[in-house]
Amino acid sequence: MKFFIDSADIDEIRELADSGLVDGVTTNPSLVAKSGRAFKDVIAEICSTVEGPVSAEVTALEADAMVEEGRALAEIANNVAVKVPLTWDGLKACRTLSQGGTMVNVTLCFSANQALLAAKAGATFISPFIGRLDDIGEDGMELIRDIRVIYDNYDALGTEILAASIRSDDHVRRSAMAGADVATVPPKVLRNLANHALTDKGLDAFLADWAKTGQSIL
Ligand code: G3P
What we know:
Blueprint: E1 2-6, H1 10-17, E2 24-26, H2 29-35, H3 39-49, E3 54-57, H4 63-74, E4 80-85, H5 88-99, E5 103-109, H6 112-120, E6 125-128, H7 130-135, H8 140-153, E7 160-163, H9 169-178, E8 182-185, H10 187-192, H11 197-213
Parallel strand pairs: 1-2, 1-8, 2-3, 3-4, 4-5, 5-6, 6-7, 7-8
Helix pairs in contact: 1-3, 4-5, 6-8, 8-9
SN-glycerol-3-phosphate (G3P) is lined by residues 6, 26, 28, 129, 131-132, 164-165, 167, 184.
């Protein structure tokens, strides 16, 4: 499974990318607003920090305008994936951009049929929003499972499932079990994946016993 960082905070991204465990980044207009920085500058900086795909979202609502914005964003760097919303116009823009060789991430996906349309439109990634489905009392993970089955039924659908709106380590675990290709994870959640109370406890005990030996490795 690939891990993307869901953030526009360059310091956080840089620190996590140093681990070698980060395969890409996703941003959205809310995350860019939170960063307080100029959109294109942030995307350029992230693209030079992370080798993998960096999603940058259009804000136009009409297909032609989305394509125009998407092309401008794709010019920032080779690893930009243009993010378009899952609307009819977004699907049209996805088709045009992907046919022109641009990576496209179709976002705000809340149903399996939407995901099927995005794949037919040539999306590189489909972003089902797990947490927001959970928020309204539905099971976001069921959507990931349904999309996995549908995509696996048709060899021609090469779109990767990018589990988004992830809020917890359990979301990551269940996305991996359901066969999502990518999880885009907030920095705090990603860091937390390495933590376990028994790891800390075990390490304390090992180090205490090691100290008693009076030895050093180097
Ligand atoms: O990747 C999409 C994500 O940023 C949305 O997350 O927590 O705002 O639903 P959230």
